[in-house]
Design a protein that fits this description.
- GO terms for molecular function: magnesium ion binding; phosphatase activity.
- The protein is α+β, with helices and mostly antiparallel strands.
- The protein folds into 2 domains: about 120 residues, Hypothetical Protein, Haloacid Dehalogenase-like Hydrolase, Chain: A, domain 2 (2-Layer Sandwich); about 40 residues, no CATH class.
- Helices cover about 30% and strands about 20% of the residues.
- The chain contains 6 helices and 11 strands.
- It has a 6-stranded mixed sheet with strand order 6-5-4-7-9-8, with helices on one face. It has a 3-stranded antiparallel sheet with strand order 1-2-3, with helices on one face. Strands 10-11 form a two-stranded parallel ribbon.
- It is globular.
C-alpha cells in the first residue's frame, strides 16, 4: 500500500523489470517509473474527509510519491519510519501561491484539485481511529473504501479499490492467471489479494 518512492532503492537493487502496484492498488508504474494506470480519490470525498478529520486528527494525503499534510508532527514521523518519503507541509510544497494564505491558514483543502490525490490517511491513537472509522463509514457510505493496515492508521480510498484489483490489472496485462500467483500479506488491506491468489500466505 506504500508509495513507489518507498521501493525505488529495492527496485534498482533487484533490477526489477515488471510493473509495480502501489498505494493500495491505486497506482501501477512501469519499471522506469512511468504511471501506467491510476485511480484518484473523488474531490468531494476528499473535502469531506478534511472537514471531518483535519482539526482533530493527523491527516495526510498521498499524491504519487509525495505525502502532504497541514503540519508535520510525531505521528507523521511514523511514516518515515515505515520507509515512506517524509511528509511535506502543504505550504512548503508550493501548492499555495506565495502571496496567498499564510502558513498557519493552510489546509489540505488547498491540495484538493491542485494535485492528484490517490488516498488519504489518518493517524491517531487506536481507540480514536476506531471511532473515526465508524463516523466516516456512516458519512461516506459507498463513496469510499476504508481500510486499516495498522490500528493507529485509517486509509480512505476510492470506492472498490484494493491491492487485489491493482494486481489483477497487472496480471491481465502480463497474461498470468491468479492460480499462478503467490501473495503474502499481514493486514486487512491484503485480504482480497490473499483470497484471489492461487497461494495466499497470511503472516
Amino acid at each position: 500500500g506504500k508509495t513507489r518512492g518507498s521501493a525505488e532503492g529495492l527496485i534498482a537493487e533487484l533490477g526489477i523489470q515488471s510493473p509495480g502496484v502501489f498505494l493500495q492498488g491505486l497506482a501501477i508504474y512501469c519499471p522506469k517509473g512511468t504511471v501506467q494506470h491510476e485511480v484518484l480519490l473523488d474531490d468531494e470525498v476528499a473535502r469531506s474527509v478534511v472537514k471531518m478529520t483535519e482539526d482533530d486528527h493527523t491527516l495526510v494525503a498521498y499524491s504519487h510519491s509525495t505525502i502532504l499534510t497541514r503540519q508535520t508532527n510525531e505521528l507523521t514521523d511514523i511514516l518515515a519510519a515505515c520507509k515512506e518519503p517524509a511528509p511535506v507541509n502543504v505550504h512548503d510544497a508550493g501548492i499555495v501561491p506565495e502571496a496567498g494564505i499564510p502558513e498557519e491558514g493552510v489546509s489540505l483543502m488547498h491540495a484538493i484539485g491542485a494535485v492528484p490525490i490517490h488516498k488519504m490517511l489518518v493517524l491517531d491513537e487506536p481507540k480514536r481511529v476506531s471511532k473515526l472509522r465508524n463516523r466516516l463509514a456512516d458519512h461516506l457510505g459507498d463513496s469510499a473504501t476504508l481500510v486499516q493496515a495498522m490500528d493507529n492508521m485509517l486509509e480512505i480510498l476510492p470506492p472498490g479499490s484494493s491491492k487485489g484489483n491493482g494486481l489483477g490489472r497487472v496480471l491481465e496485462a502480463l497474461e498470468i492467471a491468479w492460480d499462478e500467483v503467490v501473495a503474502i500479506g499481514d493486514a486487512e488491506n491484503d485480504i482480497e489479494m490473499l483470497q484471489r491468489a492461487g497461494t495466499g500466505v497470511a503472516m
